[in-house]
Every structure is written in structure tokens, then in C-alpha cells.
Amino acid sequence: MKRRLTNALLLIIGNYLLAAAVNTFILPYDILSGGVAGIAIALQPLFDFDPNLVINVLVIGLFVLGALVLGRKFAVTTAVSSFLYPLFLTFNHLKLVVDIDPLLASLYGGLVAGVGVGMVLRTGSSTGGMDVPPLVLHKYTHIEVAVWVLIVDGITVALGLWTYGIEAVLIGFISVFATAFAINKVLVFGGQNAKSVYIISDYYEAILKYIHDHLDRGTTIIDAKGGFTGDDKPVILTVIMKNQYPELNAKIHEIDKNAFLIVSDVKEVKGYGFSFDYKI
Fold it and tell me: Dihedral sign, CA of 47, 40, 168, 162?
């Protein structure tokens, strides 16, 4: 029940933020933002249609496409967004009037829209509209949704080249990058700030003992062989909190100055010590 309530709140707030971004930043400044709003703006000089009408028609049409390709689950979870987004867009009586530079409108419009879309995507749903093509492409390619959002929105922005010119397109790309950035940050929000560390050392047993006894972290031993020497080389793999890395690095240097380390940032960690209750 708690999870359902959380998802419901995320759906409502996410769609509201998306509609607010469109009404406050995108439409008033004719920002080629990508998404259905960007398409509506790009086509307006050609057909003189009401942008809100074009957006609503595209949202419904793409919802049908998503339901056919992505299945019943998508249809059920996205139906709410396909209703809420046009509703908030059309009947938003709290429209803010801001007088800012179009560059700032593009940047903040993209960021607010990206936060809204990211919140909706975290529920396993979609805002409908131009979220559907990235989800379809993700299904068949397994490339991250945020990457496909960036590509699809980039193509959408390019449609405005003939109607608004190169300057408007370049301003629109700011919104596209801001949206993709915000979506990615929201999707990984709540993950642990961690580092994965591979350690190759002749004194691996002492390093293992230190990690287990002092850092209270788990390890995995990977059997490897030196490519040049042909000698067996046990490799330690451990995942630690970022604030534990300086301590580990200093201790490894103290134990073995010739130790070889491979360190990388970890976006998300699941399991005991990270995603479950755990006290150091």
C-alpha cells in the first residue's frame, strides 16, 4: 500500500511539473524543447494549430502506439499520465509569468520537465507522448531510456530548423540536454554514493583482513593470471562507501606500495550494507 501511494504521488507531481514547465517556460518562449510540446511549436508556423490541441492529440495517439507495442501493463500504468498531463496542461490556473532570457527559459524548462518525467518513469509508468518512442527503442535495444530521450528529442528539435532557424534549434538543444540530465539524475536518485575497487597485490590476505575487520565490507576473490608473467594473481573486488575510500587507499599503500588498484564510481548498489538496514 505504501509503495502504491508513493507511486501515485510521483505520478501526480511528475505530470504536474511537466505541464508547469511547458506552460511556464516552453510555450511562452517558443522553445523547441523536444517532446510533444516541441513538435507542437515546430508545426505551429506551418499549420497555425493551437499548440495545446496538438499536444493532446499527440499524447493520445502515442499512448495507443505504446499500448500496442509495450503491452497491457504499459497501457494501464500510462493511462493515468495520458489523462493527467493534458488535464494539467489545459486547466492549469497557476501559470507563472516570468520575464527571463530565452536561454534561461530553455534551461529551466528542460530541468523542470526532466524532473517531472523522471519521477513518472520511476513508477514504471510514462507521461505518454514522446516518452513512448524511447521506451519502445529501449525494449528492443536495451540502451538506457535517458539516452534515447536525448536522441529522440534532438531529432524533434531539429524539425524546427525550417520554421524557426538555427538559433532557435541551438536554444532548444539546451532544453534537450537539461531534460536528459534531469531524467538520469532522478532515475538514480536515492542510490548509494559508492566506489567499486579492484585490488591486485601479493599481500592480498592482509588487505582482505583490513577490509573485513576495519571497513566492515564484503569482498570477492577473482582468480586471474598475469598476462606478461603468467603467474596466478588473485584479484580483490570490493564495493565501499565513497567516504571509506581514502582510508582504504592509504592502508593499501601502507601494506603494499606496489599494489595495483582500479577504482570506479558506482551509480547504484543493491544488497546488504547498502539497500537494506545496516549500521557501521
Answer: negative
Does domain 194-266 fall under CATH 3.30.70.120? My reply is yes
Least confident residue range of 131-145, 207-221, 253-267: 131-145
Whether the predicted pLDDT of 138 surpasses 60: yes
Instruction: Write out the three cell numbers for 280.
Output: 557501521
273, amino acid identity: G
Q: Domain map of the chain by residue range?
A: 2-187, 194-266
Q: Which cell numbers hold the place of 58?
A: 499527440
Task: Determine the Cα–Cα distance for residues 130 and 115; give it in Å rounded to an integer.
Answer: 15
